[in-house]
Amino acid sequence: MAIVTIVDPIHAAGVARLAAAHELIMPEAWREDRRLAQTSMIVVRTSEISDALMAGMPGLKAIVKHGAGVDNIDIPAATKRGIMVANTPGGNNSTAVAEGAVALMLALLRQVREMDEVVRTGQFDQRWKIRLGDLTGASVGLIGFGRIARYVAKICGAGFGAEVAAYDPMLSDDDIRAASVEPLDLKSILQRDIVSIHTPLTPETRDLIGAEQLGWMNRGAIIVNCSRGGIINEPALVAALEAGAIAGAGMDVFEQEPPPADHPLFKLPNVILSPHVAGVTESGMKGMALHVADVVDTIVAGAKPATLLNPESV
Asked: Are 110 and 248 in contact (CB under 8 A)?
């Protein structure tokens, strides 16, 4: 049995699995719990896990990330302290995020928010003047081509007949072509009708899409980000949207979460926003929470999890 601190809320199915075999510290008041120093496992979603926090947990053996992205965890510090870091990518969460990205595409193309307003404000006859966009037959560019992007490619390609291309410097062109997707350079990807971002936030990808890159896009194009805030430079995005340099943006993630109340994106009509919930479906959250429990049990049993990110820690 281990003492497991659940920093951020997870699905009840995962909590029940963990509680059956371990002593839990729950999210409501974990920082004040007297058992915190004896914690051997942390389960975390989006909260920051810093070196200072780890220093107050001398018994900590592992940090298990609920999800794939680990930019909120100081992995070098964990490695120095001999603390394993593992994540839980894939499964239903990948399909959920992919569906979320496509939902934002469709919401922008079909002007869902604007059409709702047309009906609510008694402007029904505006329908004779409206022309909406199509995902069917559109050219779609994916930045990053991991699990989530591959599901997006299937939905857009097989489902809508879109022409899908991808940019991923970590993969060979043959790897991308094997998924029936065209490999392209970043500039060419940004010149397509729809651009969707699916890359982790790293020093190399921070501000990957800035003013210059947004300038490569077409005026009628849209961009969607369900990956991590900070990959699109937000001031540059606001400027491009205000100038009409691109048609719209769908943002599920932000550089600062929650974004400040006076964020300039809030004032723009050609933006659809959501609170980092693209992957928050019932099946996605349940599957990921159970995956977390599996990883915890693996580590407690003395084995290395398949998703260990810093093998040099052990």
From this structure: no
In this structure, the answer to whether residues 121 and 218 fall within a common structural domain is yes
Same domain, 232 and 118: yes
Mean pLDDT for the stretch of residues 127-132: 95
Q: Which of 45, 150, 198, 276 is catalytic?
A: 276
Compute the mean pLDDT over every residue in the chain, rounded to the nearest whole number: 96
pLDDT of residue 85: 98
DSSP 73-134: B-HHHHHHTT-EEE---STHHHHHHHHHHHHHHHHHHTTHHHHHHHHHTT-GGGGGT-----
The CATH code of the domain that includes 61 is 3.40.50.720
Residues of the chain with pLDDT > 70, as a percent, come to: 100
- The per-residue pLDDT for range 249-271, each reduced to its tens digit, is 999 999 999 999 999 999 999 99
Task: Categorize the per-residue pLDDT at 39 as very low, low, confident or very high, splitting at 50, 70 and 90.
Answer: very high
Q: What are phi and psi of 142, to 5 degrees?
A: -110, 130
Does 154 share its domain with 287? no
* 276 a catalytic residue: yes
The catalytically annotated residue of 48, 117, 242, 257 is 257
Q: Taking 90 as the threshold, does the pLDDT of residue 1 lie above it?
A: no
What pLDDT shows up at residue 245?
A: 97
Which of the following is catalytic: 150, 228, 234, 291?
Answer: 228
Domains held by the chain: number? 2
Range 110-136 average pLDDT: 96
Q: Assess whether 255 and 295 both reside in one domain.
A: no
Q: Looking at the structure, do residues 130 and 69 belong to the same domain, yes or no?
A: no
Whether 48 is catalytic: no
Both 149 and 215 in a single domain? Answer: yes
Identify whether the C-beta of residue 227 lies closer than 8 Å to the C-beta of residue 253.
yes
Angstrom distance (rounded) from CA 261 to CA 233: 18
Range of the domain at 245: 94-273
Section 213-221 average pLDDT? 97
Assess whether 267 and 124 both reside in one domain. Answer: yes
CB atoms within 10 A of CB 308: 19
Are 22 and 104 members of one domain?
no
